[in-house]
């Protein structure tokens, strides 16, 4: 290990331990903690977070970073950790601490205000808070731009916080391509949607049997129960401490079979990524996914490209029918495959299907761009939102809770985050096309043999953690940078084939 880097290690070890405690609290709050616990627990969380920041952001670490910037004999892991730390410094340091604290207080309060406004269908209740959050964000962007003396666009700075290198220039091309190709496809599919009978999905599915089947499903995909657990939460998610402690959740609904199934597959995709991160990287700042988009690329690959294919269900469908013999008595594999791929434009992003999903993201992206690049009037956002839904998806929200207020992200200050979801869909399609080239993927899926698939993903993507960027991973694996054409080709082929005879 580099001598100067060695001096940084105690700080990193302490920061990791504090962060692990924060992650566990977060996990506990979502899964096991009693309802009344949150207010008092919040004090412990606050103390731990401020300790965490002090451990990373201080003059000793700053000096070490400066020294290390001139060193040339660093390993990939050391270089990645430095880059990550430097990024945290560059985004936090230019902001006056008093302002930063006030902002933290604001986004701690905002989700409750948002939730109340959403429950009352009243955007005006949330608008003043949203305006305040956006004003802070704009101010912080100014500080950061001044400090870096760079000429970057304000919204690019926010995008870069989540997905390095994916600027508006790149995303505009991606999203314009999508709009041009997907909107006509949605119209075709929408005309035929009533020909698909999906009533089987809403029958009686006892929760204990669902849990049993979902555990088997995760195991089928390669989820290692010695290094992972599955619990329940309202919104499914994945969290992890290191590659030997990866936790996912699922939400079960008595009268909806596929909801839990596809969230289990999705979160298992995230979990496999974390379980496969190299032992030398895990439990360090280099031991996470390459980017949010690459992480979502893994979950979507499993959920959609694999999980909604006919091949995938060949070895599983009989077991599913045996688990729910009455509710699935009259449903055969082909009916089920059409059902799980039924597409219909809707209002709610989290309930949307594979085909329409990215349009929900485009709408949020275009609005965020208007906010940070064109000073859009925050009071007019609901009208802008509704117009875009009408134009792209042909639907209009009846109220704010199924429109502008549906997502929590803006209340948490997460601007620039949404595009990662759409990038994840496109990255998944690109990896899927590549896997089909390098291995007999259909045969593996049909025989339920995930081992060679997981080995390949581990060797070419997962084990590198953050030491490679998303584009580096794609380039080294398939000789090509991010290319959204794969996603468009995949959707066109899939939906034209599925809907051909309807
Ligand atoms: Zn995800």
Can you put this structure into words, describing what you see?
The protein has 502 residues and is mainly α. A 3-stranded mixed β-sheet has the order 1-3-2, with helices on both faces. The model has no long low-confidence stretch (mean pLDDT 95). The longest helix has 29 residues, at 3-31. The protein has helices spanning 3-31, 38-56, 59-68, 76-92, 97-119, 123-148, 154-162, 168-192, 207-221, 257-275, 292-306, 310-313, 317-323, 333-340, 357-374, 381-393, 419-438, 441-446, 451-460, 470-478, 485-499; strands at 228-232, 238-242, 245-250. It has 2 domains: 3-151, no CATH class; 168-499, Orthogonal Bundle (Neurolysin, domain 3). Helix 1 (3-31) packs antiparallel against helix 2 (38-56) and helix 10 (257-275) crosses helix 11. Strand 2 (238-242) and strand 3 (245-250) form a beta hairpin. The structure holds zinc ion. The site of zinc ion (ZN) has 4 residues, from helix 10 and helix 11.
């Amino acid at each position: 290990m580099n001598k100067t880097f060695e001096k940084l290690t105690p700080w990193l070890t302490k920061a990791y331990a504090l962060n692990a405690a924060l992650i566990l609290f977060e996990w506990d709050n979502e899964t096991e903690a009693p309802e009344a616990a949150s207010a008092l627990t919040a004090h412990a969380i606050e103390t731990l977070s401020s300790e965490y920041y002090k451990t990373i952001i201080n003059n000793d670490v700053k000096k070490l970073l400066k020294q290390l910037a001139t060193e040339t004999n660093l390993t990939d892991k050391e270089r990645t950790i430095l880059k990550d730390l430097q990024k945290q410094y560059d985004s936090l340091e230019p902001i006056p601490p008093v302002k930063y604290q006030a902002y933290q207080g604001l986004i701690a309060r905002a989700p409750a205000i948002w939730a109340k406004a959403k429950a009352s269908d009243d955007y005006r209740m949330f608008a003043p808070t949203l305006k305040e959050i956006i004003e802070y964000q704009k101010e912080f962007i100014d500080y950061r731009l001044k400090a870096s003396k760079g000429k970057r666009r304000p919204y690019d700075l926010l995008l870069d916080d989540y997905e390095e290198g994916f600027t508006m220039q790149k995303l505009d091309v991606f999203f314009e391509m999508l709009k041009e190709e997907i909107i006509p496809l949605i119209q075709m599919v929408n005309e035929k949607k009533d020909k698909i009978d999906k009533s089987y999905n809403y029958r009686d599915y006892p929760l204990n049997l669902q849990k049993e089947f979902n555990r088997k499903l995760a195991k089928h995909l390669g989820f290692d129960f010695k290094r992972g657990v599955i619990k329940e939460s309202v919104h499914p998610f994945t969290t992890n401490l290191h590659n030997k402690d990866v936790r996912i959740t699922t939400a079960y609904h008595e009268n909806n079979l596929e909801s839990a199934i596809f969230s289990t597959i999705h979160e298992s995709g995230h979990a496999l990524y974390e379980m496969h991160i190299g032992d030398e990287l895990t439990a360090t700042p280099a031991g996470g996914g390459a980017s949010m988009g690459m992480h979502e690329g893994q979950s979507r690959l499993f959920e959609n490209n694999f999980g909604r294919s006919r091949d995938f269900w060949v070895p599983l469908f009989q077991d599913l029918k045996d688990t729910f013999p009455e509710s699935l008595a009259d449903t055969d594999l082909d009916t089920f495959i059409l059902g799980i791929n039924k597409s219909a434009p809707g209002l709610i992003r989290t309930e949307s299907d594979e085909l329409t999903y990215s349009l929900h993201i485009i709408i949020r992206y275009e609005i965020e761009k208007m906010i940070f690049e064109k000073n859009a009037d925050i009071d007019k956002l609901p009208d802008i939102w509704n117009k875009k839904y009408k134009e792209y998806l042909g639907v209009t929200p009846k109220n704010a809770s199924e429109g502008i207020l549906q997502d929590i992200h803006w209340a948490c200050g997460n601007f620039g985050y949404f595009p990662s979801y759409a990038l994840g869909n496109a990255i998944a399609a690109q990896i899927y096309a590549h896997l089909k080239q390098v291995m007999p993927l259909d045969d593996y899926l049909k025989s339920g043999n995930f081992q060679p698939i997981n080995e390949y993903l581990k060797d070419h993507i997962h084990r590198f953690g953050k030491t490679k960027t998303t584009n580096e991973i794609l380039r080294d694996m398939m000789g090509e940078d991010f290319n959204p054409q794969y996603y468009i080709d995949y959707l066109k082929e899939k939906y034209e084939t599925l809907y051909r005879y309807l």
